[in-house]
Specification:
mainly alpha, Serine Threonine Protein Phosphatase 5, Tetratricopeptide repeat, 14 helices, elongated, Ctk3_N, CTD kinase subunit gamma, variant, Ctk3, Ctk3_C
């Protein structure tokens, strides 16, 4: 297929457009072909798109419009030299939409889907929003006869199989279009690196704070915090830490020993709780330590392990 000349490439591309449907596999196949030959004969392939929008069925025309959605999005990443389709679509958008949505009662079938894809292009800015806005205004000014005679004409123009297929393809097209809008990033809501780094560092440092002094972080957390702070903050933190280094070191050692002792005692507590002898022993220990003793309770203390 890489040895095709421009004429053979046109024939192959026209055949792909005629077989195009709403499935992602079909759209991706035609898109890949257009991307591969965009640098050599992009203008020729674009003429085929305009031609099929004038000659194809209404269903084929709306499928081409959704195919262009995928084509233009992939073309933006390659640039005009490799895939000039974004520039060509902006230039011929009015002509293209007039072919997909003709100013007749039959064009009403493609009106809603065309508006949806145009609104998507304006929102995602894959096409100049001003150009898209002008085309949408031209569609809003159209009037269609919705009388009973026109409804009967549409019913006779399409078989039941065509109607069912059109409903299924409309459902597939709208689902894919909603997915594209859902994954659209909004720059104003994306946090910067500076706003994310500071809260994360602070939360990691405060999570290891001492239970006796909640406002003062543990020395190990100060080390991790200093690794992520600027030089000026690191100097100020070291000065403030040096002022009370001796007192904080003594308290840290005491707290560490108390934590280890508490964990050892807690592991020895039976699942059924403490008995009266254990409670009396605890009160005696608290008196020796000159700690405040809670009022005596008649009910035994239960612990949840």
């Amino acid at each position: 297929m890489s040895s095709f000349d421009p004429f053979e490439t046109r024939i192959q591309f026209i055949n792909l457009l005629r077989k195009l449907n709403a499935s992602q596999q079909s759209i991706q196949k035609v898109t890949s072909f257009a991307i591969n030959y965009g640098a050599r004969c992009g203008e020729d392939l674009w003429e085929c798109v305009i031609e099929q929008c004038n000659k194809g069925t209404l269903n084929t025309r709306i499928n081409i419009l959704y195919f262009l959605d995928t084509l233009v999005e992939e073309s933006l990443a390659l640039g005009p030299s490799e895939a000039p389709y974004g520039m060509l679509l902006t230039r011929d958008l009015k002509t293209l939409v007039d072919s997909v949505v003709p100013d007749t009662n039959a064009g009403k079938l493609n009106l809603k889907s065309a508006r949806q894809i145009l609104e998507s292009w304006r929102l995602r800015r894959v096409v100049d929003p001003g150009v898209v806005g002008d085309v949408l205004k031209s569609l809003e000014g159209r009037k269609y006869d919705s009388g009973p005679s026109q409804k009967r004409t549409h019913e006779h123009a399409f078989s039941k199989t065509d109607i069912v297929r059109r409903m299924e393809e409309d459902r597939e097209r709208h689902k894919r279009l909603r997915e594209r809008i859902w994954i659209l990033p909004i720059p104003s809501l994306l946090p910067s690196k500076n706003t994310v780094a500071a809260p994360t560092t602070l939360s990691s440092s405060t999570s290891n704070a001492s239970p006796a002094t909640p406002a003062s972080p543990h020395p190990s957390s100060l080390v991790s915090l200093s690794q992520h702070q600027p030089q000026s903050l690191h100097l100020s933190a070291s000065v403030s830490a040096g002022a009370g280094a001796g007192a904080e070191d003594d308290m840290a050692v005491s707290e560490s020993a108390l934590d280890v002792e508490f964990e050892q005692i807690w592991d020895r507590v039976p699942e059924e709780g403490l008995d009266d002898d254990d409670i009396l022993q605890m009160r005696a220990d608290m008196r020796r330590a000159k700690l405040e003793i809670a009022p005596t309770s008649t009910a035994p203390i239960q612990t949840d392990v």
